Amino acid sequence: MPSKLIEREMRIANLPHIWCPGCSHGTIMRGLAQAIENCGLKREDTIIVSGIGCSGRAVGYMDFDTIHTTHGRALAFATGIKMAEPRLHVIVLTGDGDISAIGGNHLIHACRRNIDITCIVLNNNIYGMTGGQYSPTTPTGDYATTAPYGNIDRDFDIPLLARAAGATFSARATAYGVNEAISIMEKAIRHKGFSLVEVVSVCPSYYGRKNRKGDAVRMLQWQKENSVPYAAVGKMNEEDIKGKIITGIFNDDDFPEYTEEYQKIIDRVRVK
Ligand SMILES: Cc1ncc(C[n+]2csc(CCOP(=O)(O)OP(=O)(O)O)c2C)c(N)n1
Ligand code: SF4
Description:
CATH superfamily: Thiamin diphosphate (ThDP)-binding fold, Pyr/PP domains
Oligomer: single chain
Number of helices: 12
Bound molecules: thiamine diphosphate, iron/sulfur cluster
Distance between the termini: 59 Å
Radius of gyration: 18 Å
Strand order of the largest sheet: 2-1-3-4-6-5-8-7
Shape: globular
CATH topology: Rossmann fold
Number of domains: 1
CATH architecture: 3-Layer(aba) Sandwich
C-alpha cells in the first residue's frame, strides 16, 4: 500500500519506477515531495523542471506541473518560466552531469543572477543513465567506463561552485541523512533567491560497481561513516577532511532577487 504522502504527491499510475534496486534517487525524490508538503506549496503554484538522466526521471512520477527538458538545460527552461510567471515556485531537479557538465554555464549564470529558483542536484558521482561515464564530480583516481585506468580530472564541489558564482543559498545533504536533506530542502524552497542543494545519491549499478564500493546498503553505510557537518570543519585539519562528505548549509544570504529587480525596471520605464 502506498503511503499517504505518495498517494498525495506521486503519479501512482506511472509507478513502479525505472530505477535500479538500491538506487537512492527515489529516496531523494520522496524527500523532496515531503519538503514541498512541509512548505505548504500548492500544486497549482509549483512547477518542477528536470534535465535528462536517471535523476531527471523523477518528474515523471511527481504529481505537479512538470517538464522533462533537454540535457543540461533545466535551468534555462526554469529561468524562462520564472521570468514569465514570477509567482510560481520553480524547482529544478537535476543530476551532477546534467548541471555541472553540459549545464555548467546555465548553472553559474543562474547563481550570478540570484533568480528565485530552487535547484536540487542528485549527485551520484557518475553518468548513470548512459552507462557509467565519469562526470565532473567523479573523484580524482576513481573509475568509470570512460576512465578505466582512473580519472585524472579534479572533481567539482557543486555547492561551493554555486556559492562562488553568487548563489545566495548553498548546501549539501546525503541520501543516508534523508531527514537532514528534507529540512535543508525545505529551507532552500523558503529562501528568496537562487538556492542549490546537492543531495549525495548512490548508484550501485555503475559508480558503486566500478569502484568496488559494495552494495547499496554498504554505500549508504559509507555515507553515514564519512559525513562531516559543515559546522565542525573549522576545527578539523585538512587531512581529516579529505574524502569526507561535508553536509549542512554553506551560505544563506540576502541579496536582491532577479525577477523583482526586473519588475522595477518595467515599472520605471512603462509609458505612463
Ligand atoms: C545533448 C545530449 N547529450 C548527451 C545526452 C546523453 N545523456 C543522457 S543522460 C546523460 C548523463 C546523465 O548524467 P547525470 O546528469 O549525472 O544523471 P544520472 O543519470 O546519473 O542521474 C547523458 C550524457 C543527451 N540526452 N543529450
Ligand atoms: S544507473 Fe545508477 S543512477 Fe541510474 S537508476 Fe541505476 S543505480 Fe540509479
